Amino acid sequence: MKILLITIGDNEDKYLANGFELYAKRLQHYASFDMVTIPSQKNKSNSKEAAMQAEAKEIEKKLSAGDMVILLDEQGKEYSSVEFAKQMEKYLNMPGKKMVFIIGGPYGFAPEIRKRAQQSISLSKMTFNHQMAKLFFLEQLYRAMTILKGEPYHH
Question: Which helix (H) or strand (E) is 5 found in, with range?
Answer without folding.
Answer: strand 2-9
